[in-house]
Amino acid sequence: MPAHEPIRILLVDDQPLFRGAIASLIDGRDDMTVVGEAENGLDAVEKARLLLPDLVVMDVEMPVMNGVEAVRLIREQLSTVKVIMLTVSEADDHVFDAIRFGAHGYLLKDLRPEQLYDMIRSVMRNETPLSPAIAGRLLSEIQNGATRRTSSPAQPEGPPVTRRELEILQLVAEGMSNKEIGKSLSITEGTVKNHVHNALEKLHMENRIQATAYIVRQGLGRRPVDE
After folding, report:
1. Does the chain have fewer CB atoms within 10 Å around its N or its C terminus?
2. Would you call 33 helix, strand, or coil by DSSP?
3. How sure is the predictor about 6, in pLDDT bands with cuts at 50, 70 and 90?
4. How far apart are CA 127 and CA 104, in angstroms?
5. Which residues pair with 34 in a beta bridge?
6. Does domain 152-217 have CATH number 3.90.10.10?
């Protein structure tokens, strides 16, 4: 996306006051704009089809149709539209289903405006932001085998990932951004992005959260320095 084109966002929440507050925050930025609002999941699917936004920022718990079902339909019908889920608690039981259906990020509603802006931009860079509390819970439950409840990708077929791709996926699993990984490995951010893309394709995965689950589930994480 050219830098001069603002990110086109569809906001979805059943609480008009919260939705309006987020809209005011986003419309105050030069690089993003709200192109529409929806009050439930069904409304979100219909407006996503009509407006073709770059990104949907969507609440999880809503009447008529919840955000999890809506993200499934949006991702099935509009594969180029990205979706960030919002929730009030890291204990939300919908997190795994939303990720399985293709959500590109999962954030708590108590985040600061600057964090929201950064998360939106990171999604448009094909990264997968998670609130720290949700990331911690996700990794904990993956380690405890909770992902058996979801349709996690099967063992990959085809060419294996390279040593460098695995090294980068290990850093992805530690929550590092492409920029942070590039600095750590003394390579460019673009090179990191290419390695992540190639590794995800080889593993038949859609996003960094699935890659994190794979790394942890297979016991491929980096060993602590003191081991």
Report:
1. C
2. strand
3. very high
4. 8
5. 9
6. no
